[in-house]
Amino acid sequence: MIKRRTLLGAAAASPLLSLPAFGQSAGSSVLKYVPASNLTILDPVFTPAAVSVTHGYCVFDTLYGVDADQNPQPQMAEGHSVSDDGLEWRITLRDGLKFHDGEPVRAQDCAASLARWAKLDPFGQALGAATESFGHADDKTIVIKLTRPFGPVLDAIGKPHSRPAFMMPERLATTDPQTQITEMVGSGPFRFVADEYVSGDRVVYEKFADYIPREGEAEWTSGGKQVNFDRLEWQIIPDDATAIAAIQAGEVDWLGAVLTDLQPVIEASPDVNLHRTDPYGIMHVVRFNHLIPPFDNVELRRAVLKAVDQVPFLQSVAANPDDREECLALFPCGTPGVEQVGEGIMGSLDVEAAKQAVMDAGYNNEPVVILNPTDISSIHPHGLLIADLLEKIGFNVDLVDTDWGTVVQRRVSKETVENGGWNLAATNWPAISINNPATNATTRGLGESGWWGWYEDAEMEQLVVDWLAAEDPDTAAKLYLDIQNRAIDQVPTLPLGLSYRSGAVRADLQGALQGSVDMFWNIRRG
Amino acid sequence: MTGYILRRILATVPVVAFVMLFVFSLLYITPGDPAAILAGDQATQAEIEAIRTDLGLDRSFPVRFLEWSGGVFRGDFGTSIFTQLPVSTMILQRVEPTLSLMIVTMIIAITVAVPLGVLAAWKHGSLLDRAIMLFAVLGFSVPVFVIGYVLAWTLALQLGLLPVQGYTPFAEGPWPWLRSLLLPSFTLATFYIAIIARITRATMLETLQQDYIRTARGKGASDFAVLFIHALRNASVPIVTVIGIGITLVISGAVVIESVFALPGLGRLIVDSILRRDYPVIQAVILLFSFVYVIINLLIDLSYTVIDPRIRY
Fold first, then answer.
1. What CATH code is assigned to B89-265+291-304?
2. How confident is the model at residue B100 (pLDDT cuts 50, 70, 90)?
């Protein structure tokens, strides 16, 4: 102890050690950002990971963006026209668009980008299924020929999250969809500096001098993307407490996420402000495996749904009441068109009644395997809570605590539990990525070709097809409500409510936008 | 001596070969599918299968092992499943921070611990001796990440003397480099100071009882000469052994320290790679670590013959 004090004293006395922290010396034209997780996959169409989407918006641009109300707005597009029969869409590009390698952005590049995206993204796949071709009339005009009416064309190609339709040069966009693109050449507001990229440590971007922002205010992924920094540096800091200390010390400017437990530290700091980027939040769910007993039985799923009280689930991931919201629906509350159709159905809290319902539904005391990743703080408590709930209402629970890597492998097993299968697993989705019938994998009834859990429901799929084809808003709205009701009736997934995550921004920065991910235009120092 | 060195070097070959087979087998049977992780939450079974095929994960164990080991002998460790970067590039990017951490930590540990151990032995039973041993017990007992947070809070946040996190390459200047390493190295060194100081004290106590020490004192040698010239050299074999083992242990300590202080080293690389089942990276880093262990053990053995000429092979 004596020696440590001596050491600290010596350190404090040293004039050399009193120099300012080196992290502060980079200059005001550098914006330093700490993403919530490491950027490992650069291709933002290959993966739906939020960090790759964030990176994608730096490097790439989209034909259409969305405003705060999720309405599509032209971004790279000047505008569009639709044929009288609704089967041919022509999208015109703005003048002067360039890729980072100096080549002009052509309609051919965009058509190839749309074609690749339509093979990977669920909304894109729905559009692709109704599309004869993604082509071009000339260098500035993209032509989408449909085989049947498809109402939300612009919603699909302007979707803001989980594989947005980013535009790439044709030579990259023709890459096999199952192969990652690693050459980062886009037409977005920042140029990726490949030489300085060290996965797990840092990602560097430079302002793209030839980027031409749209006119108007920036809002979500639309409007004028004005970049006010010459350089954007991402630094990966795996330890949350260290990241907090780094922003307090002024070594970084912006944290993508602050753990709920650490938010009071930021609130007490005069130099740093909390910033909630995504006002729609994260939707927490528990997925049933529909292929094997007992949850191939809809009555059992309904019995569990009836017993679920979302409050403890939400409290376990969001300490502050402002950071959580009950949502009695399988679509994210707060997004356009969503209603709490589960009111009066969910959350009875009547354990005895639920026990009786489970027995009445014909439960045979089969073991119920719950996959629970202990290394994901936003999911782990939900595994524990659902196990506790199921035990209380009479299920024979086998809670499998393991790591995320094992969970994602076992989750795709279609075997019985004796042979390595599973019955329940919790996860979460950015609300904005499941805010319509086409993209909401938790409710789609595609069976074995769909999302893990393999819920099959022909009636649901027909409703989705009808919704996609609906050309007038009233019909679409009615169909959307029917889909919501169908979902809460069939319970393909248990909804656990919404939580909201905040990041942190240094107080001398102004103009941080809202969106489904952090965006680096509009923000400025001072 | 030359024959001994050659024999020892040749003995490392089967060790490394066994490690290669063991590591590859272990990862082959470990649950966790990189294709499923790579595909993400929305992926369908067909997409995962397509990625698995694309990555060659559907091929048999012997085929994959032969391909990998053949690549290793050619100096090709493959490509990261996730980043699509050559594994050798990823390792080269990470070697410098870990090596720097290792060097600075051990320099701090040795320069602090050996004099402390000698001092404790010299003042055996005194208040100073007990204080040094108390420090050693604390160094053992308190987890490094706790020490790390305390030092970061004190030296970086409250006093603003050192950066909280991050690494500055040596190429950007020795002082910025050292500055970025002081906090993590001090933190990690506390454990090694404790262990080296205790061993130094114990072996010095034993050595100080020897006849030749009494003779040296009788001939009028100063305390400094007795302690550091006569006794310390003869007490050095166990101390060097502990230091050598300590260097290898720094690698495991680096896993925690690199995460706490955001150093982009091999420790973080292997943790990240294990979590996402990036097999080629895991295999290469473990192989590298094994090689380092083998080399350090070899150097320890060789150092014995230099320190104590009575040791002959």
1. 1.10.3720.10
2. very high
Q: Is B115 on the interface with A (CB under 8 A)?
A: no
A17 contacts chain B (CB < 8 A): yes
Q: Is residue A318 part of a domain?
A: yes
Does the residue A401 lie in any domain? yes
In whole angstroms, give the CA distance from residue B50 to residue A275: 39
In this structure, the answer to whether residues A169 and A291 fall within a common structural domain is no
Chain A to chain B Cβ contacts (< 8 Å): 178
Residue range of the domain that includes A126: 39-182+209-217
Residues of A in contact with B159 (CB under 8 A): 11-12
Name the closest residue on chain B to residue A194, using Cα atoms.
Answer: B85
What global pTM score does this model have? Answer: 0.87
Hey, of B27, B42, B95, which one would you mutate to test binding to chain A, going by the most A CBs within 10 A of its CB?
Answer: B42
Considering just the CA atoms, what is the radius of gyration of chain A in Å? 25
CB A517 within 8 A of CB A57: yes
Q: For residue A318, what are the CA distances in angstroms to A210, A275, B27? A: 42, 15, 36
Check residue A200 and report its DSSP letter: T
A300 & A427 share domain: yes
**β-bridge mates for residue A497, sequence order:** A284
A264-310: pLDDT as tens digits: 999 999 999 999 999 999 999 999 999 999 999 999 999 999 999 99
Do A49 and A149 reside in the same domain of the chain?
A: yes
Tell me what ipTM this predicted complex has.
0.82
- The total of structural domains in chain A comes to 2
Contact B281, B27 (CB under 8 A): no
Asked if residue A3 belongs to a domain, the reply is no
* pLDDT tens digits, one per residue of A125-181: 999 999 999 999 999 999 999 999 999 999 999 999 999 999 999 999 999 988 899
> Is-contact A214 A75, C-beta < 8 A?
yes
pLDDT tier, B312 (very low <50, low <70, confident <90, very high otherwise): low
Please report, for the domain that includes residue A313, its CATH number.
3.10.105.10
The residue-averaged pLDDT of B60-65 equals 86
A191 lies in some domain: no
In this structure, which amino acid lies at residue A307? A
Angle CA A352–A355–A358, to nearest 5 = 155
Strand partners, A498: A283, A325
Tokens standing for residue A184: 């980062």
Give me the pLDDT at residue B211, please.
Answer: 85
User: B162, A21: Cβ pair inside 8 Å?
Assistant: yes
